[in-house]
Specification:
The chain is an alpha+beta fold. Helix content is 23%, strand content 31%. The chain has 7 helices and 21 strands. The strands form 7 sheets. Strands 6, 7, 8, 9, 10, 11, 14 and 21 form an 8-stranded mixed β-sheet that branches. It has a 3-stranded antiparallel β-sheet with strand order 3-19-18. Strands 1-2 form a two-stranded antiparallel ribbon. β16 and β17 form a beta hairpin. It is elongated. The termini are far apart.
Length: 356
Amino acid sequence: MAIDIYSTARLIQAVEGINPASSFLRDTYFPSVAADVFNTEQVLVEYKDGDRRLAPVVTPYQNGFPMTRTGTEMSAYTPPTVAPKRPITLDDVTKRGFGEALFGEVSPQQRAQLLAMSDLSELDAAITRREEWMCAQVMTENGVTLTQIADDDAAGTPGVVRYYSEDSNPAAVSVTTKWDADGADILGDMADMVHKLTQAGLPAADFVCAPDVADAIVNDERVYQLLDNRRYQLGEVVPAVEAPGASLMCVLSVRGHNIRVISYDETYTDDSGAAQTYIAPGSGVMTAPRAGHMLYGAVSQIEQADGEFHTYGRRRVPKYVANADDNVRTLTLSARPLPAPMNKNPFIVAKSLLTA
């Protein structure tokens, strides 16, 4: 019996075999495990307050003393559907492909299969870039604002997810003196950010920032003098590449906490065709790895094979549709991702850190 390589089950295997695109923010601060992939369209977002209480002291005759559980917030969200697609036409399979020999012996059927794998890889990378953008939104805005588009709605429908109930983001801070101005207190400002995390029982390990902010830090005279001290180590400058677009500029001792200053200059192309950075210029976020996690809702779709609805609890769900009348095959790759914090306000963000 012939194997249908375009069945959803086969395509899912192909997608899962793709070498995943790199995504520093998602993989470092929003990793996902099997329990984060739901079999329902809605996902459960649950995060709690940090706990810094002391254990109660009791007399030898007291059989313990009750401690209440810390408050948690639980909400059900329907993640937005991210679904890029790409058609494969007769011209695509009958003409020489990219990187193919000029007079190769690849048949149209073989070329269609090669194009399908290439398209799945590129669509997966596009979804990964959207996930990275969503992670940056949660880190800098404590929520996600998305515009969902449809064929008959050019403007799109806005959708907002916020992880706070206050009028403004409680995890946002401001500095008195800009970091590129005279009298700047970079270490003091960073210490305040660290304190906001530690007083809530949350770890502080990384300061992820735009390249211009990283330059201001390593070029600051006070920071330089501290790093140059030969008697005791207050930090070190050890530039290294953490991931594509992410560079470890230095490690600073901020009131005893070793904070890695990471410059992140990875870019994406927005809807207008302009290049944008995930972390806006003049901004930085104090946090720690695994402060959040990426949740995935199930994808439901009608299969061409039987015309019935099918639901898949996967990070990526492919769909193949053939239109015999127009001689077009279409591959769609869908995902329903939603980055969420593990605790309340684990990302302390500071914007407008520079004068320019």
